[in-house]
Known about the structure:
Number of strands: 12
Shape: globular
Bound molecules: S-adenosylmethionine
Order of helices and strands: EHEHEHEHHEHEHEEEEEEHHHH
Helix content: 25-40%
Amino acid sequence: MADKVIPIYSEPRPAPPAPRYDGAPLSDTLGRTMRDLRISVTDRCNFRCVYCMPREVFDAGFKFVPHAALLSFEEIARLAGVFVGLGVKKIRLTGGEPLLRKDLPMLVGMLAPLGAELTLTTNGSSLVKHARALRDAGLNRITVSLDSLDEPTFRAMNDADFPVARVLDGIAAAAGAGFAPIKINMVVKRGVNDHQIVDAARHWRTEGRGRVHILRFIEFMDVGSTNGWRMDDVIPSAEVLRRIGEAFPLEPAEANYSGEVAERWRYRDGAGEIGVISSVTQAFCRDCNRMRLSTEGSLFTCLFAHHGHDLKSLLRGGATDEDIRDRVAAVWRARDDRYSEIRTTETAKQRKVEMSYIGG
Length: 360
Ligand code: SAM
């Protein structure tokens, strides 16, 4: 049997002092502006999706981040305030499975007054329980991951024997709580769930019944070092669009804003829209405006990075908000990542931080 791959996490480096932030608009070395912040609130998940947290690696012996190392809600809210002060307009809570973090609606309530658009990505498994409280706390939008409507396919992909119906109930609960539109993420892996592409499109374009659910197809990516990624397993978005278009004609739609991850397509018959996220076949690095904050306070400038910038030691070492702001500004200004544009079979083998740790 092959040796078990041990995922890497952050390699904390002491944060060097940063020059005072001069207040000028933040731009990185490729002229990109900081707009989105993704916050991983836990690296744990109750699913073991084969493309994300394969069970043979994330097993009973796996060492997740210890509780004391996690950023507290107060620390997260303080950092989020600094980011909003630097121009962040959208904050996504993610993980791991964010709803495994106890009292998450309380964190939502602490972030809502910052005024950024507040969103959550979840596997939907406990949305029936939490949707109303999240809405009441001020969450603006929800994205739910659901890779297949076919029971055996879904159970095999989540590798936790979790039934489709409970995720569908969660989506219905979110709609009932007032979330609209709800985005549904479907990662497509060749030979695993690609036979479900048109079925999923059919379901979500009719299931809405007046409510808009936006299905988004995500190309299988080489995130982390443990998911055994191979280019052959990727279904290019162009193929997804071709297959759906043959059943339900599509036309391109305008992006909502510059740097939007998903490319939008609408059904010609007016039955809503879909999105495709083509990180592999059509890299969108040149518009990438995202930062990622790990569960334990490391800042990552790219989903495919292998080290982060330690903000927790600043937080816990008595730094002022201005010190933290200076550090974040310096990290953004030095940013030169464009992994997806330079991806090759060789780079795919590089050691990278796991998505569950820095947040999907
Ligand atoms: N647990 C939550 C969920 O399931 O949505 C949030 C975290 S999850 C890492 C965020 C998103 O990343 C999900 O939609 C998931 O399907 C996607 N994802 C994870 N691994 C991926 C991979 N290798 N390629 C493409 N998307 C991936």
